[in-house]
Known about the structure:
Layout: E1 2-9, E2 12-16, E3 21-26, H1 28-32, E4 42-47, E5 56-61, E6 67-68, E7 73-74, E8 78-84, H2 92-105, E9 108-114, H3 121-132, E10 137-139, H4 148-155, E11 159-163, H5 170-178, E12 205-208, E13 214-217, H6 231-234, H7 239-242, H8 262-269, H9 274-287
Parallel strand pairs: 3-5, 8-9, 8-11, 9-10, 11-13
Antiparallel strand pairs: 1-2, 1-4, 2-3, 4-5, 6-7, 12-13
The protein binds guanosine-5'-triphosphate, magnesium ion and zinc ion.
Amino acid sequence: MIGTVVKGIGGFYFVYDGNDVVMGKARGNLKRDKEIIYVGDIVDFEIDENDSDGEAVINSVVERRNHLSRPPVSNLDMLVVVFSLVQPEVNFPVVDKLIAACEQAGIAPAVCISKIDLAEEKSLEEVKAIYSALYPTAIVNALSGEGIEDLERIISGKNVALAGPSGVGKSTISNHLLADLGIEVETGDVSDKTRRGRHTTRHVEIFALSDGTQLYDTPGFTSLELQETEPSEIRKLFKEMRGCEGECRYRDCMHINEPDCAVKTALEKGDISRSRYDSYLHMTEEAKKWLK
Ligand SMILES: Nc1nc2c(ncn2[C@@H]2O[C@H](COP(=O)(O)OP(=O)(O)OP(=O)(O)O)[C@@H](O)[C@H]2O)c(=O)[nH]1
Ligand SMILES: [Mg+2]
Ligand SMILES: [Zn+2]
């Protein structure tokens, strides 16, 4: 039988076959080969009702369209990078790294700026301008529901993950999208001072929305590493730099110290944002550690 892994907890997988969700484990050969099973994987499985480890036994994983290791998900059409400007404060290198990871994996990035009730209007407008020029962008207040409809339009019908730092409101947003299904996921409790709303969601879980959207709620993170990448590959992961291709004096321009660089010109004119460019410098620096 064929099904989709909709959740995985400590070596147990929940497989949806179109009607039911069955829990089970990977067959021994998959474990021996250290094959990772991602939430989102389409798997071939069989039912073994005598198995004490659950009913389903996963035999193999159908070839993935794409996957990410952080968050660990596969077969996405889109990933929405969710971040707030304050509480927690935005970390642009992390935001831009997650966008770059999507570009690298062939997943369409989108952006959702959350907690707009807490943000200062001027900085919100600035950040919104940067990302909406590049990707579909929604701005939401998940407490009031403002902006949720814009997000719904962006994600409708897609296999889509909400991903980003811990505490930005991903699960609170998910609950708006899940409301008509009568499902509610756990969200951080601000009144609980010790947890400070950090790392509330522990596992990726997929929910089927009524419009055909497959929504992946994912655990937040505080830092993020790009997978091993040549420094010279990173410029290809920045959409606005791809737009300058062929316009620099040197064909292999890194857009850092070269003269007559179209990216640097666009940066000076304000057509490329300083914070995105800084993220690019940060990532190329970080990628140098993989050079031998
Ligand atoms: N002021 C304000 N608070 C919000 C908003 N959205 C979510 N919150 C609060 O932020 C806290 C964290 O929200 P969660 O939805 O659990 O955040 P998360 O991104 O799922 O966090 P992790 O599961 O740890 O990754 C909760 O106390 C929410 O009530 C918002 O738009 N405005
Ligand atoms: Mg959460
Ligand atoms: Zn250049």
